[in-house]
Write a structure and sequence with these properties.
alpha/beta; Molybdopterin biosynthesis moeA protein, domain 3; elongated; EC 2.10.1.1; Molybdopterin molybdenumtransferase; Molybdenum Cofactor Biosythetic Enzyme, Chain A; molybdenum; 392 residues; binds ligand LQZAQKY5; single chain; six-stranded mixed beta sheet; Molybdopterin biosynthesis moea protein, domain 2; binds molybdate ion; molybdenum cofactor biosynthesis
């Protein structure tokens, strides 16, 4: 059995070069730029007024000035500057050449065409040309595009961007006991939940899930399932990963030429995880126990889907104080489902008494996975421990 860290390195190495596509920016929220966006204009394109008021000269602040024209946003003043003059100006208008300051109208007394400035302190109220960005500037965030990014791209006059393609992830659940949600299970059957969980999890990471029909526990049915995954960027199988007579995923994958990166890791839950490459397509084989499938999905599938879009996983281990005593750990790194509560300095983490990897109700209540290394000695309440947040 290899360690979680080694397994993650193997899984991430399955991601090929990022595939890209061109899309209009109104579709780009949440997508990841595959190439830097390049500003096609300078912003502001001219020295722009930041206030409604009068364009004046700093050297003439203390004298009466004659208003000789008007500059509004979209309608520049076209006359020339004159001594002892001012131009009525509005926010967003180009400051006419020959004027170096805008006095806001609240600080001006006007009588006909004559103004006097009543308050001469303060800034020049001019946004210089290029203050925001210049033509040729690059915008290349290594994260999902936000609302502000969309606005910036529009302002940069970039209508179309090159983004990482959403990986298409084929999800193949297998098991004779499984029926789809909404069906009445016959004796011995249960409702399949893992495929929906993994679909939600990959969608959260930016992929497009394709849930395949549930495979039966036969070699033929699994072959059909694998064939149905053709064309996907990633295949995730669920179940049939262990050592039982009906656990056939590994066998069928190897018949199809799986170049196996690893099988079995020193992790709890999730020991029978497998990963490799089927031709050009990465494959991750998740264990069937519902909590194991989700925990492995969070730890391996989500980072792989992010890497396929050129993104690093942002989930980091954080520190908490243990709410109760814990016995020593075995030989696998343990991810315990736990709740978090606020406390004076660090959050207080409380693992559930049951860590059964079939209990989805506890998984759904968990705020975090408390991470205990293999061989961790007994811990006392108040000890510092590491956790992986599951929310936010
Ligand atoms: N002799 C051993 N038995 C088992 C071992 C072992 O090392 N030696 N490992 C156990 C561990 S750990 C796990 S995890 C499971 C994983 O087994 P499989 O990946 O082969 O999963 P299945 O046998 O197909 O299913 C396990 C369990 O999960 C339920 N399941 C499966 N798919 C779904 C689904 N899509 N939705 C909801 N529930 C699902 C299935 O009904 C079983 O109850 O093996 C242990 N055994
Ligand atoms: O590793 Mo299994 O995934 O413990 O339930």
């Amino acid at each position: 059995m290899i360690s979680v860290e080694e397994a993650l390195a193997h899984v991430l190495s399955l991601a090929g070069p990022v595939a890209s596509e061109q899309i209009p920016i109104d579709q780009a929220l949440g997508r990841v730029l595959a190439e830097p966006a390049v500003a096609r204009i300078t912003q502001p394109p001219f020295n722009a007024s930041a206030m409604d008021g009068y364009a004046v000269r700093t050297t003439e602040l203390h004298q009466a000035l004659t208003v000789i024209g008007e500059a509004a946003a979209g309608r520049p003043f076209t006359g020339g500057a004159k001594p002892a003059s001012a131009v009525r100006i509005f926010t967003g208008a180009p400051v006419p050449p020959g004027y170096d300051r805008v006095v806001m109208q609240e600080n001006v007394a006007r009588d006909g065409d004559l103004i006097t400035i009543t308050e001469t302190t303060g800034g020049d109220n001019i946004r210089p040309a290029g203050d925001d960005f210049r033509i040729g500037d690059h915008h290349a965030p290594t994260r999902r595009l936000s609302t502000a990014d969309i606005a910036l791209l529009a302002a940069m006059n970039v209508p179309v961007v090159s983004v990482a393609k959403r990986p298409r992830v084929a999800i193949l659940a297998g098991g004779d006991e499984l029926v789809g949600p909404g069906t009445t299970p016959a004796p011995g059957q249960i409702v399949s939940s893992n495929d929906l969980a993994i679909a939600a999890l990959v969608r959260e990471a930016g992929a497009e899930p394709v849930i395949l029909p549930i495979a039966r526990d036969t070699v033929e049915s699994l072959h059909q399932g694998f064939a149905a995954a053709a064309g996907a960027d990633l295949l995730v199988t669920i179940g049939g990963a262990s050592v039982g007579d009906h656990d056939l995923v590994g066998r069928v994958a190897s018949e199809l030429g799986l170049q196996q990166a690893f099988y079995k890791i020193a992790m709890r839950p999730g020991k029978p995880l497998m990963a490799g490459r089927l031709g050009a397509t990465p494959m991750v084989g998740l264990p069937g126990n519902p909590v194991s499938a989700i925990v492995c999905g969070v730890l391996f599938v989500q980072p792989l889907v992010l890497a396929m879009q050129g993104l690093a996983s942002r989930k980091r281990l954080l520190k908490a104080r243990l709410a109760l005593d814990l016995p020593p750990e075995g030989n696998r790194q343990h991810y315990l489902r736990a709740t978090l509560a606020e406390s004076d300095d660090l959050p207080l983490i409380r693992p559930f008494a049951s860590q059964d990897s079939a209990r989805l109700s506890l998984m759904a209540q968990a705020d975090a996975l408390l991470v205990r290394p293999a061989g961790d000695p007994a811990r006392r309440a108040g000890d510092l421990v590491s956790f992986l947040p599951l929310r936010g």
